[in-house]
Amino acid sequence: MSKPETSLMSRLVSLAKRRGFVYPASEIYGGLNGFWDFGPLGVLLKNNLRDRWWHDMVECPPLGPDGKPLSIVGLDSSIIQHPRTWEASGHVGGFADLMVDCRETQSRYRADHIQCIEVFYEKAGETKSLGLLSAMEGDEFEAALAKKAKRLIQKAGGGELMPVDLKAAVLFTNMAKDQQVLVIGPDAETAGTLTEPRMFNLMFSSHAGVFQDEDSKVYLRPETAQGIFLQYKNIIDTSRVKPPFGVAQVGKSFRNEVTPRNFIFRSREFEQMEMEFFCAPEDGMMWYEFWVAERMRWWESVGCRKENLYRHIIPEDELSHYSKGTSDIEYRWPFTTPNFGELEGVAYRTDYDLKQHSEFSKQTLDYIDQEGGRRYVPHVVEPASGLTRGVLLLLAEGYQYDESRASPEWLKIKPSLAPIKIGIFPLVNKDGMPEVAEKLYMDLRRTYTCQYDAKQSIGKRYARMDEAGTPFCITVDGDTLKDQTVTIRNRDTATQERVSLDKVRAYIAEKMVE
Ligand code: GAP
Predict the structure, then answer these.
(1) CATH number of the domain that 382 lies in?
(2) Nearest-CA neighbor of 384 among 452, 442, 323, 435?
(3) Looking at the structure, do residues 373 and 467 belong to the same domain, yes or no?
(4) For residue 328, what pLDDT is reported?
(5) Model pTM?
(6) How high is the mean pLDDT of the chain?
(7) What pLDDT score was predicted for residue 273?
């Protein structure tokens, strides 16, 4: 298995586009940074992951520590809520990044993503500072700085570049405090074109109603969670749940990310799968640990290898003021390897959100515990994951490269999550084979997403299905007409078995539980 030249990420992006998993949004107009569309295979894969989460959270929730099924109900709340929601949640005041703009290039950067370095050059025995160069942190940092330094030296009329000490790199935010320092922006030619860092709110806003003024201003939700807190009282009053219980929601969220990047990892429109678990205050820490373990187990159950998952416990001094404990479930992404990056956050949010909404709405959001004879505001543990990010995990985890196969690039996705479950082919498009294959297709399509394909060589058809991650291909050949058997090819082993036509359904059903 030899390795291709280009990075795994660029191969994933190109396979995703070529096979209709993910396309750049608005591509015919040149695309729109931070927005992606899910194509025919992508939407099937995304829906399968979403449905698995919904099933495992709402329809068949996990067993609690007492061995009994947990009580979790679903919700589908509006993307646009009363604007006071986001004041209460802290998003209006605090959901912001420190940004710098470049007057020369009109680009905007997250201040904590820019790093600076002082560059010196030597000419006729004299060492001179060329000033501060900056570049975006990350893989390209060193190369970008070296290129810039060379350009500056050329401008200065030649000289030798002093070794750039990357360890001396400091965050721009620190340097900017010193007004004497002129920084050259990451994409600029001239020094001093970067503005002072200033706060930039990540929420998209719009207007509801006829008049477009401050009073009609509304926000697209930056997380699905708040909709759950707003309906907490209605759910308690109407669905007979009592703590401990959960409310789960899947849906779109929007964040005007300053630097959307790494394909669908960080986009401006994305989907979340969030659950708020309401419990008695004294049980909060226990449920927090429960949900971290449960969610790690779940990601393994959808096909993520254990060694690619990591629990990152947020240190106490970095916790949000309302959190008593937060762990990020991290995955070893192609662009973070050998390190890990966030896939899901599990936060013990105490009673902060309900108390905030209670104060801002002037509604009582206490729970009256009749049995225990007390009244309290429930505490909340929140497992919050990204559906869009989960799809990227399935693609990255499933991506295989093997030059000995007809399609060197292929996807190993669990059969139950694969976009297409079965490819059905007549070996040749004559001699009675299409009729049998079509009949089989008409039967199996009622239960599984199938694709009928009679074009090109059988090898090419297998290759196409491997690239799409299709776990099984059924071929009707000359023997089928004689003995009523077909071949079933397994994507992972590329081996074939002969199975009688009347046993095909049972064969597939057994494998599909994986
Ligand atoms: N309610 C808590 C909350 O929203 P978060 O850590 O900001 O927490 C939860 O988001 C998850 O949503 C993240 O772990 C990630 O999987 C996903 N997510 C957040 N921002 C995203 C973005 N810009 N693009 C794609 N996924 C994102």
Answers:
(1) 3.30.930.10
(2) 323
(3) no
(4) 98
(5) 0.86
(6) 90
(7) 98
